[in-house]
Automatic annotation (TrEMBL):
Subcellular location per the Swiss-Prot or TrEMBL entry: Membrane
The protein's name: Amino acid permease
Positions of region (Disordered): 1-20
Organism: Streptomyces kasugaensis
One BP term from GO: transmembrane transport
Keywords: Amino-acid transport, Membrane, Transmembrane, Transmembrane helix, Transport
Topology with respect to the bilayer: Multi-pass membrane protein
UniProt keyword annotation of Transport present: yes
InterPro entries on file: AA-permease/SLC12A_dom, Amino_acid_permease_CS
Amino acid sequence: MSPDTRLSPSPPVSGEDAAAPTLSQGLRQRHLSMIALGGVIGAGLFVGSGRGIAAAGPSIVLAYAASGLLVMLVMRMLGEMSAAHPASGSFSVHAERAIGPWAGFTSGWSYWFLLCMGVGLEGIGAAQIMTGWLPGTPEWAWVALFMAMFCGANLAAVKNFGEFEFWFAALKVGAIVVFLAIGALAIAGVFPGADAPGTSNLTGHGGFMPNGTEGLIIGLLASVLAYGGLETVTIAAAESERPVQGVASAVRTAMWRIAVFYIGSMLVIVTLVPWNDEKVTTAGPYVAALDHLGIPAAGQIMNVVVLIALLSAMNANIYGSSRMALSLVTRGQGPRSLARISSGIPRRAVVASSAFGFLCVLLSYWRPDDIFQWLLNMIGAVILVVWTFTAISQLILRRRTDPAKLVVKMWAYPLLTRVALAAMAVIFVLMALEPATRSQLYWTAALTLVLMAIGYLRQRKAAGTS
């Protein structure tokens, strides 16, 4: 095959990911393992979790435990399908195979939109940290620098993405491990200068659930959305040296480790610091906990960690969105001009995804109160839509899959898959009942319905011309 090859899209109803065989297999097992671990450890955990703690109090531990169980079930389903049929389109390909092209179109493009918006948001967050360190420097210039850096890395070779993510994820994981170790010592009363808090912060200040079930619900919704990003590992698996073994190993090891990081972190924070401490929301829960222990320069230390988390997420989202776009267009579900692979890299898809992310940044400057907020609301519950398609696809594909290909098996099939679907339905209902999340749910529903209609019409048109 020549270095610059235009791919012919496979029949729209086939559900096969034609791009996967021609992509570079430059990712190693160590890359996949760290992508799986680092994919969800972002600013949402380091900073955004403070809003969940402020709403739920110490019961945020239960919220993260419940949402963590749901994420484990979803990842097990996705791992089963991706190990049996590795594809750069991941759940979009599985939805097309199981339900139909309209489902693959809807889940794929909604996720692409989510990732591109994420690139913009993370670029803005990283730029704000840099301007805090270097006052007077323009925020847009930092965003442009970061966008150029990671777009260039993704254009060069997939191993560059893998190396960036490996070291970014290693630093994030290392920071969490150190934090958990310090927290455990402080809780045990053996950290220098810190007294053991006992259960005073868990039961005092209004009790374990100070804001009742409403606060717990808000914390639950915040924690569910914080877990988004783990799906990238199943997208990346198609470009690894051993896709089947790679995704199986990454999914198995990542699930329990991430549960420990998230739930363990929340338990340490609410044990050490009163949940209603203003620093939990203003400075972030990790900074509040480190400050409480008297660790010097805790705020700046965490700013470095958050910056790394944001840059890591930018890198992963540019990668994931470009691969999702490529998979969609090679299946006849998008502009064919993006269906070009050069030296094993989908460079046009990388540039298109990066450009949309940068457009989101510009909109945040030009129209922060209407257009940008409108776009933000549309992605509010997209991850739940994707998880719903994933669960339905697994229910269907499990019956069609050769048992010999089931390297990873969903636990207690089909019971736990149905339990996960029921849990997602409950979360949708809770979002509709909660004023703070209702508008996000409605805008996401509108985006999903529009994509479903377009996908269905394209499917009917393709069926009529075949």
